[in-house]
Fold each of these.
Amino acid sequence: MNASIDPRSVKHPCFNKEASGSCGRVHLPVAPKCNIQCNYCNRKYDCVNESRPGVTSAVLKPFQALEYVKRVLDKEPRITVVGIAGPGDPMANPAETLETMRRIREAFPHMLFCLSSNGLAMPEYVDDLAALGVSHATITMSTVDPAIGAGIYAWVRDGNVVYRGQAAAELLLSRQLAAIEGLKARGLAVKVNAIVMPGVNTQDGGAPLMAVAAKARELGVDLMNMMPLFPTEGTPFGVLAEPGKDEVRALREAAGSLVPQMTHCRRCRADAVGLLCGDRSGELGGVLAACGA
Ligand code: SF4
Ligand code: SF4
């Protein structure tokens, strides 16, 4: 199945590969906390929802994020998308995330807004996100089987209650599905990220990942992004092998009959900036640090 480009995504470099050479994104690292613990994540690094390991050079407050966007746009006017992808989970930091979006929406009414979340706390904010004009969202959902999820998540925290094992995975899955439904009902373009974890969700020819694709199709998801696990030292999944390119390609091909597949993801940092093919987070790290000081 080919990704058909809907009008909202013409200038989004991740949802529209054609735009990735001319339209850029800036990720605002305003969300340090997370409400779950994935077995592949080391909190010293960025959220692998949307990133490869590598510390963000600063965490910004909402007013600092606005200043940062202004300065970045001076240097990189090709940016069309402002996203929040960590370094924790945007909706585990709702005050910071919503305030940041409010300020930027006011200053830059035409900017596309994009959020990436594990989905746990997303359902209660879908109205706020739609009202703020968030046009694109990503939910990382690597399995729709709680028995598999029990092996992926060490814990899930909802308010003051911490869940573990299958109960944790069941709760997270129910919120992920509700989040996707809520976002789609409000007209957002939705991407599902699924981390490809050898031996965890790749058994039976990748059947668990195909089940994710089937569910995504059922919910009207616009795009699926199978991201190879980046085994991070010091995490339970640090000992797993990184899936090979051929394996991931075959999985994408198989799932592509169900839902359009992203093939150009760069596993960007939570403070990524610039074109996908020309990240400038190193070069503009000084601007970020200055705004966060
Ligand atoms: Fe880490 Fe992201 Fe998982 Fe939270 S959702 S534990 S930040 S990978
Ligand atoms: Fe786009 Fe992938 Fe980078 Fe996210 S991590 S901004 S989906 S290229």
Amino acid sequence: MDTKQHILIIGAGLCGSLLGLRMVQRGYKVTIVEKRPDPRQVHQDAGRSINLAFSDRGMKGIKLVGLEDAVRTLCIPMNGRMIHDPKGNTFFSPYSGRTDEYINSISRSDLNLMLLNEADKFDDLTIHFNLGCKEVDLENATATFKEYTTGDIQTFSGDIVLGTDGAGSSLRKSMYLSKKFLFSFSQEYLGHGYKELSIPPTEGGGYRTEKNALHIWPRGRDMIIALPNLDGSFTVTLFLDYEDAPDSFASLNSPEAITEYFTRQFPDAVAMMPNLIQEFQENPTGPLGTIKCSPWHSFGKTCILGDAAHAIVPFYGQGMNASFEDVVVFDAVLEKYQGDWETVFKEYEKARKKDTDAIADLAVDNFHEMKEHTANPLFQEKRKLETAFEKEYPNEYYSKYSLVTFNEDIGYREAMLRGRAQDKAILSLLSEGALSDDLSLKAKLEKIQQETNDILHDD
Ligand code: FAD
């Protein structure tokens, strides 16, 4: 193999910076071109998720490039969900009965910077900023960029072009516009949008509420969540209808309306949010959508990864994790078929698409679960039972959440099929009263396993 083949990567976000680093580690010459300014020179308030839930599938990607220990220093473990009811009572629900299974809160910009700095150490990798891709010549692996301050047009070529330019991918658009092959594309938006707010640290720099939890205020139609930051603050995200609902971004159009809504719905959170009105009015409202498309590649010259290929709603905390897992899968396929890019791209999509379709669907399911079901007594009973199974029988039981989030040895699709069947089994046995207290925990587990297998075989 000519190890000095040149890879052009569009987009230096989370996926692009990890991918670039891995490709240069493999011995390729890499150029990454990014639309935004260099984050090391210009502080950017991205207007989008400041912190993210980072878990095992994402860590697989980080391990691949040898940054596990460094990334751990950026992580705050979140052991479970802290549910806040409308009266301010809290209820903690662990993510797993196994103590080594938890997720982490991590700063998007710190993680991105760490990856960029590591990539920049290689002489064979160059990063250009302030250049937004306008179009890609798919057959010739050549991309045209516009410099935002001067308006100058620049062209970059590679042996191949990889698009990691996020949900609005320019490479995907060029694939779509190309009339030379069929391209399937779907884009579905929720009627809800999101807005980021904050809970600042205490005066002494401490946390105003439990640090090691993902906080949720589920209110049926809408909710807020909060994830901790290293400086003692929490980033709060409101998920709310855009319009046409009793409460919506359209109806919260004055300080009075904002105060009335938050005090009614989230009284204990409001008490910790001194900058609520200003942040609500100044911070942008973002859309929440799912993008699926196929094929992810063209002419054996270009391929898309990360959100460019599969943007998902954030309710499973898996978009970045899935994008990092993409790099792991891509790397494994490359190992097998290196030298033949067309086969690499085809095999990569074949191995990966079923899983990214599954996490896209699971993420929409979790939207409903988080805002509606986490406060439901049946759901809470189910979670208690699952936690007990995982504690007592750690090698025999994995909840759907554990299968998706912690069981990195199986793909998202397998996790979805097994997890959904298991959920159906537990909820129907619980509502039929078939898991009464006189049964031992083991007997309950066996009943659920039997019912789950029946459901899986019927499907
Ligand atoms: P991006 O992060 O979008 O990066 C794309 C990069 O390409 C950017 O740097 C962009 O500037 C650049 N770019 C775009 N267009 C061009 C162009 N034309 N030319 C050159 N460069 C370009 N995921 C999780 O795993 N856990 C979470 O808890 C989580 N929470 C989320 C919360 C919210 C509110 C949102 C919106 C998303 C969340 N995600 C989460 C998803 C996660 O943010 C994405 O899946 C992840 O950022 C995808 O990485 P990416 O590199 O593919 O895309």
Amino acid sequence: PGGNDLEDHQEFNIFIIYTKENYQLQKKFELFTKSLLKFSTVDKLHLHIISDRKSEVSAEKILKEQIEHYRKSVYFTFYDVHKSSEKIKDIVQAMMPFFSSNPGSYYSDALFYLSLGLHRIADPQMNRAILIDCDIVFRTDVRLLFDEFKHFSTDNIFGLAPELTPVYRHILYRYRANYPNTSFGSPYFYVTTPGRKHLKHKQHVRHGYPGLNSGIVMLDLKRIRESKLFQESLKEEYVQQIANKYMFKGHLGDQDFYTLLGYEFPSLIFRLDCVWNRQLCTWWKDHGYSDVFDAYFHCEGNIRIYHGNCNTRVPE
Ligand code: UDP
Ligand code: MN
């Protein structure tokens, strides 16, 4: 199959983290690989797998089986998770106190911050990549996801979809109490009831900013390397300052940081539509947020990618 000239200059790099494999993770990786290959029309798909020795063996086996089955040409490269973690030590050190649930176990934590230092792990010549969780299932051609890069404005360096639970409403509880008019931590669509004397007026539909989910992270690596603002923001002093400002103590690693960065510098992040990362986890519905959960969980349109987060099964 001969792609066109334009496409020869495009890069289709997918990064995926596959470590500490077990039966459950194998099944996720298999579903990810199957669904990726089934729909893909990309000639030069390049998978970059960050892995450990034992997991690498299992990943290679699954990949080879599926490549043979779907008869697609896919390049793949393995990266050692320990070497990769070494390259982002300073970032992990800065972030861990604010965005890890029990800081201490370095390597198990570094995993969840790799996306923030991927520009150091990837080849310096690599211009763009997409980091994808193992618990992702494609319902469409991955080429269309890469096409979303075309919608980046010149300031956008990352692309992420919204978080579809009230987790940031929860974490920002104190901040929201101090700033009752804030839309940070509110669902994307929500209705406000005006003050008593305006009761006869219509309710207003407002846009909130629920936070971001890092199951899919689009990275313009060239711009990331060149962004002084972003490079400064990774430093300990800045991370401390921003976490204090929002009285923020999270546990979701990189996505906590992207969420705060998105509050402070919205132009750095392209808002990928929820259909590209349709999360399925409903944990917060049963943990104190049943009244507002649905407003967060709402996602309209044809689902392109399912994200079976918190071990949720993806519909057949
Ligand atoms: N991961 C891994 N080994 C682990 C745990 C996580 O390789 O033991 C990787 C895997 O790519 C996974 C990602 O880290 O998709 C994020 O974890 P997960 O998807 O389970 O988190 P959730 O989306 O449920 O918050
Ligand atoms: Mn996930």
Amino acid sequence: KIKSLALAASLTLAVTMSVGAAHAQEVKHRIIRFGYGLNDISNQGRATKVFADEVEKLSGGKMKVRAIGGAALGSDVQMQQALIGGAQEMMVGSTATLVGITKEMAIWDTPFLFNNGKEADAVLDGPVGQKIMDKLQEKGLVGLVYWENGFRNLTNNKRAVAKLEDLDGIKLRVMQNNVFIDSFKTLGANAVPLPFSELFTALETKTVDGQENPFNTILSSKFYEVQKYLTVTNHVYSPWIVLVSKKYWDGLSKTEQKVLMDAARKSRDFERQDTRAEADKALADLKAKGMQINQLSPMEANRMRDKLSTVNAGIAANVGQPLWDEVQAAVKKARGA
Ligand code: TK8
């Protein structure tokens, strides 16, 4: 009797396991709403298309990504909340707008952290980049990969900014993020946090005088139509991050999760290449569109850097010194120093 009970138990276990295994490999028909803030002709839109095509291909046409750009599903912050609540499946947006959820994300807002894309790739794709990404999970978000938003540059309508003092009193839109608010206040500007989705109108109606974003975005969002002056500051490198709702993710089979992960990696590699190629010629395009370009002299760049060192101390205190040190060490390693 005892033997047959044990047999029954092990049979039940075997059946459960094989059902579990089948489930782990199952790929269901799914529609994934993937939201983003820029328009579909932007680098963000192009890479989203690559992601969508790859998901469809890898899932044999079963999983379909509905790409919804232009912040039609809401601003970065609104979409993050929809993902946490399970009302939306995926998005891509700035890491900077995540600091209210995961404070460690502020590390990527450190002014002048990276000198070039190669350094950024090495640190973001390395252990510390993964560690910071993984912190999102306890808040209901799963980060898949970092994309490149890029090095940010300053535009405005008031005056050519060639030195630190030229920033005085310029009403500058910044992302909804304390490090950005602090940074630009420290530099003398009047920093106004606004979602990206409201930015073009705010510039057009002169609610704000200026903004800062990579060349790619200044071009694809047509900011040149409403901004005269551009200063090449490269003051910070912004990553984008591809996110999945954790509620949704946990309901996927292992195979489905792998489809999303593999497609995300492919989209990342495409996106960085595409973004860099576009950035390389964007400055000439913006000039041709009539923007007046200023290069910041090395001396002025150093003055800005010095002023911003107080901001760095604030970030270190906020994310914790050990994490700050870990990132600095990773940057040093990436630099080969
Ligand atoms: C797009 C934003 C944008 C960012 C900003 O949703 O807000 O200025 O650079 O890319 O995430």
